[in-house]
């Protein structure tokens, strides 16, 4: 397996409950290395741009409002098959369906407030990383 990168967000529901360290620990224990990380307050424009792919979906406005409701932690993760590894440790979007030992099973409050976001492909990881990070901010 090749070492690749993926993008992760620790969402407002998790930062509000001071779970940044606990979530990061689970990511690291899954074999992912944090090579860039910053705590930000996403602007409405950033949220709308980041989630533009969902613009026509009925949940778009609520999603943008949620993601701007508090601080988030955006991260670049590195590891073998990083996208899959991150998605495995995150668990199913619906925490009721998430496997034991996953972030969403442990910490998600609901299907909407599910504590983390992770890229769904290497192509999207590249786009999402570039949305929030300059190359010099990634220090792996």
From TrEMBL:
**Domain (Nucleoside diphosphate kinase-like): residue spans on this chain:** 3-140
The record's subcellular location field reads: Cytoplasm
Cofactor(s) of this protein: Mg(2+)
Catalytic activity line of the entry: a 2'-deoxyribonucleoside 5'-diphosphate + ATP = a 2'-deoxyribonucleoside 5'-triphosphate + ADP; a ribonucleoside 5'-diphosphate + ATP = a ribonucleoside 5'-triphosphate + ADP
* Main location (coarse class): cytoplasm
Q: Which domain of life is it from?
A: Bacteria
Query: Which GO MF terms does the UniProt record name?
Result: nucleoside diphosphate kinase activity
Enzyme Commission number = 2.7.4.6
Q: Where is the catalytic site? A: 117
Q: Which UniProt keywords apply?
A: ATP-binding, Cytoplasm, Kinase, Magnesium, Metal-binding, Nucleotide metabolism, Nucleotide-binding, Phosphoprotein, Transferase
Question: What Gene3D superfamilies does the database record attribute to this sequence?
Answer: Nucleoside diphosphate kinase-like domain (3.30.70.141)
Chain positions recorded as ATP binding sites: 11, 59, 87, 93, 104, 114
Function according to Swiss-Prot or TrEMBL: Major role in the synthesis of nucleoside triphosphates other than ATP. The ATP gamma phosphate is transferred to the NDP beta phosphate via a ping-pong mechanism, using a phosphorylated active-site intermediate.
Similarity field:
Belongs to the NDK family.
Q: Which HAMAP family match?
A: NDP_kinase
Q: How does it assemble?
A: Homotetramer.
Record protein name field: Nucleoside diphosphate kinase
Gene source species: Sphingomonas anseongensis
């Amino acid at each position: 397996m090749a070492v690749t990168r993926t993008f992760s967000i620790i969402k407002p529901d998790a930062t509000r409950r001071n779970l940044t360290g606990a979530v990061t620990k689970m990511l690291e224990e899954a074999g992912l290395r944090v090579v860039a990380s910053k705590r930000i307050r996403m602007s409405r424009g950033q949220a709308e741009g980041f989630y533009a792919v969902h613009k026509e979906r009925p949940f778009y406005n609520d999603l943008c409002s949620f993601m701007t409701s508090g601080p988030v932690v955006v991260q670049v993760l590195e590891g073998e098959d990083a996208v899959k590894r991150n998605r495995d440790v995150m668990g199913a979007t619906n925490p009721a369906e998430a496997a034991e030992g996953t972030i969403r099973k442990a910490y998600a409050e609901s299907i909407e407030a599910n504590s983390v976001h992770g890229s769904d492909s290497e192509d999207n990881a590249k786009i999402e990383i570039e949305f929030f990070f300059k190359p010099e901010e990634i220090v792996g």
